[in-house]
Amino acid sequence: MPAASGEQGVREQVSRMDPAGADPCCPSPTEGEAPPPQGLFPTSCNMAARAPPPRALAPPPVPTETAGKEQVKMELENASLWKQFSAVGTEMIITKKGRRMFPGLSVKLSGLNPALRYILLLDIVPLDSSRYRFQGDAWQTVGEAEARLPDRVFIHPDSPATGAHWLGRSVAFHRAKLTNHTLDSQGHIILHSLHRYQPRLHIMEARDMLRWGGAQHSFSFPETQFLTVTAYQNPRITELKIRSNPFAKGFREDGRNCKK
DNA sequence: TCGACTCGCACTTTTGAATCGG
DNA sequence: ACCGATTCAAAAGTGCGAGTCG
C-alpha cells in the first residue's frame, strides 16, 4: 500500500536546541504551528513536582555539530485507515488505567544519518480551547476547555537507536496509552475527555537516553486528530473500530459476543 | 433527570516461558 | 549444549451494558 508522500498531509518543523541559549529543557515553540501553551517538554520544575513517568525524562542537552544534511521525512504508514476514521470523526477511548490508541501511529522514516543515534517521541497537544458534546449526529462545542494538563511524552521503546535501525522499517507507537487520570503514575499520556487533540511525533538526535540534543524534527498528520471519550458516542466509529481492531473481533456479526 | 464516567464481563490477540526435536 | 520451532497458559486489549456519581 503506498503511503502518503512526505509532502502530503505532513507538517514538519525543524528546530535546533541552542546549546548556549534559552532553557534547553523547554525549547521555544517551533515555527509554522500555533504555539502550544507549554513547551514540548515539561520544565524541570514540572518534572520535580510530579512523579516522573518511567520513560519521560527531561535530559540535559548535548551540543552537536552534526545537523541532518539530508531532509528527514516521515510517512504515516496506515494513513488510509486513519482517513477512514477521520472522515467519520475519530474518537479515542480514555480510561483511568490507560487505553491504547486505535488506529495506532505507525510511521516510516527516511533521511536519517545511519550512524547517528536518535530518540523518537510521541506527544499529544490540544487542537483548540473548546469542550465538545455529541449532539444529534455531530460534535458541537459546549464551552471552554478545561485547564491544560502537564505535558507527557511517550518515548519509543527502541530509543535511542541509530538511524540505520529506524530506517527502512515501520516504527509503531501502539504501546502508548491514554488516560484521564490526572494523578496517573504509570507514565501514560494524560488527556481531558471530550476535547480535541493532535498527536505529534518528534525525532531528536541523542547520544544516549540521558544526553539529547542537536537537530529536532517534529511531524503531525491532520488525519490523526481525534476526540477523547470515555464511551463511544458515534455508532459509526464503534462500527469502524469493531471492524478494524482485531481485539474487537468478538463483537463482529460473526462473533459470539455480537449484539443482535 | 441526565450526561459522563467506572467497572465487570465475555471475548480475542499477544506475549513469554516451557517443551521438544534436530 | 545449543538453537529454532511449537505449544500453552497468562496477561493484555476490546466494546458492551449496568450501575454510580455529580
Strand and helix map with partners:
Blueprint: E1 11-16, H1 44-49, E2 73-76, H2 79-88, E3 91-93, E4 99-100, E5 106-110, E6 117-126, E7 130-135, E8 138-144, E9 153-155, E10 161-162, H3 163-166, E11 170-172, E12 177-179, E13 189-190, E14 196-208, E15 211-220, E16 226-229, H4 235-244
Parallel strand pairs: 3-16, 12-13
Antiparallel strand pairs: 1-15, 2-5, 4-12, 5-11, 6-9, 6-10, 6-14, 7-8, 14-15, 14-16
The chain binds a DNA duplex (22 and 22 nucleotides) through strand 4 and helix 4.
What is this entry, summarized?
It comes from Gadus morhua. Its main location: nucleus. The chain is mainly β and 260 residues long.
Distance linking N and C termini: 35 Å
Structure class? mainly beta
Shape: globular
Q: Averaging pLDDT over every residue, what do you get?
A: 75
Low-confidence stretches: 1-9, 13-68
Q: Largest sheet, if any? A: 8 strands, mixed
Extended strand count: 16
Number of helices, counting only DSSP H or I runs of 4 residues or more: 4
Radius of gyration: 19 Å
- Helix and strand element order: EHEHEEEEEEEEHEEEEEEH
Helix proportion range: 10-25%
How much β-strand is present in the residues? Answer: 25-35%
Keywords: DNA-binding, Nucleus, Transcription, Transcription regulation
Domain T-box: 76-253
InterPro entries: p53-like_TF_DNA-bd_sf (IPR008967), T-box_DNA-bd (IPR046360), T-box_sf (IPR036960), TF_T-box (IPR001699), TF_T-box_CS (IPR018186)
Organism: Gadus morhua (Atlantic cod)
